[in-house]
Amino acid sequence: MIDSTTPLKATDPAEIRAERRRLVEAVGAQRRLLAARRPFELADRRRLNREAGARTRAQARHGKAVQRIHERRARSERSLTGRLNGLDGKRAGRERQALVVLRRESIERSLRGTRLTSSEVNGIGSGLARDLAAQGIRTAADFQRVSWGKAPNGRGGDVLYIHRTQGRKVHINGIGEHRGRPLMEWRRAAVARAEARAPKELPPDERHRIEEIIENERARLQAELAEVPKTAEAARAEAEQLHAERLATLAAAEREAGEEAALRRAGFDEMAERLLALRVELAAHVEQYGDLGFRDRRARSRALRPVPSAPPVIPAPRAPEAEPEPLSGSATATAEALPVPGVRAGLGWLVPVAFFAMTALFGAGVTDATPMWFVVSGRLVALLMTAELLRLWIPRRDWRTADAMPAGTGFLAAGVFLGLVAASMFADPSYAADSAPWGLAVVAVVLVGAGAVRRAGVGSAVSG
């Protein structure tokens, strides 16, 4: 009796060839499908690189935003602190200004109260007093000075003009040098008396009013200064929230793309297992029925060619994962990953850089009489200073390494520049005998020494 589970051995050559052809075609089809795995793995690696780049850009954008918030806070605190420290000087200035106004008003009132009469000024009778009053000059406050000029009608030579406080100058017939001098002496005496009677200090109520204004401004500035950290913290929290949302969006997109890639990779793994099973079945069929001829061998050699190897699945470097969390945890994790922000070196340092670059290109005071060794050495020194300033300034502009320029750098730069100017004056015969180059040289040595001392002091403090 024959077991039903034992397959019957085919004996028909046509059936054997058909079965062999089916196995070979199945192996070839699976091999062609599996050949797409290598391009898929390469594309998936590019995807991982793009995701890592997107995370890096998001981290850099967030770092720059935090840096800008820190710089705005530092600028606001520095400005408000300076204004608070200057309130005492501002109060003294307001008191001086108020005293000046008070004295000026007192002097003007006194001068307006000093009337011009015939009994007050020698040589000025009642008729001249009426003429002066007709021209608007009744008190010592109505005119300022006298001067000589051409007569109004152009005849008779020079005449004496009286300059009114408000309005044009006027000429009074009968008032010349002999009457103009007593008139000015009378006014100077009136001004001296008014100045002597004017108050020398502010009254208590005015001083108290100024004090209240200063104290109100102090309270306002202190309130603004207290709000600066809160405003900066709110802006930082908003930046952290935006960064967390951006990371969450990237993470969701990465998870979706990763799941699709995993499904595609699982499909390729199933294809590989199916191809292996078909090859085993084909090998068993060949072992059972043997070789079927040249066409069979050629078809099997094409079908059994090795599949192009897929690249190893090595995940690309990624930024630290940041799962969506509450704001406090996300902000803490982000703050730990970011460098501590500092105040960047100012753009004003480009001014000495430009000066030294121009000196390196065109020289410092180069003339036909300047020796060649001085031209070369001066340009080399300027070029070295340009490179040194750029070496110090460029890293301190990046948000990751933001910092102020080292102490003493400004003194060193100014000293070297003045030294180059002094050396060029020494090399010029027209300036060599003067004292100006010696003065510049002394100032340059002092500045370089001060800069070196400050640099050394800061370096020792940091190392200590």
TrEMBL record:
<feature type="transmembrane region" description="Helical">
    <location>
        <begin position="406"/>
        <end position="426"/>
    </location>
</feature>
<feature type="coiled-coil region">
    <location>
        <begin position="207"/>
        <end position="256"/>
    </location>
</feature>
<feature type="compositionally biased region" description="Pro residues">
    <location>
        <begin position="308"/>
        <end position="318"/>
    </location>
</feature>
<feature type="transmembrane region" description="Helical">
    <location>
        <begin position="438"/>
        <end position="457"/>
    </location>
</feature>
<feature type="compositionally biased region" description="Basic residues">
    <location>
        <begin position="58"/>
        <end position="73"/>
    </location>
</feature>
<protein>
    <submittedName>
        <fullName>Uncharacterized protein</fullName>
    </submittedName>
</protein>
<keyword id="KW-0472">Membrane</keyword>
<feature type="region of interest" description="Disordered">
    <location>
        <begin position="305"/>
        <end position="332"/>
    </location>
</feature>
<feature type="transmembrane region" description="Helical">
    <location>
        <begin position="372"/>
        <end position="394"/>
    </location>
</feature>
<feature type="region of interest" description="Disordered">
    <location>
        <begin position="51"/>
        <end position="88"/>
    </location>
</feature>
<keyword id="KW-0175">Coiled coil</keyword>
<feature type="transmembrane region" description="Helical">
    <location>
        <begin position="347"/>
        <end position="366"/>
    </location>
</feature>
<keyword id="KW-0812">Transmembrane</keyword>
<keyword id="KW-1133">Transmembrane helix</keyword>
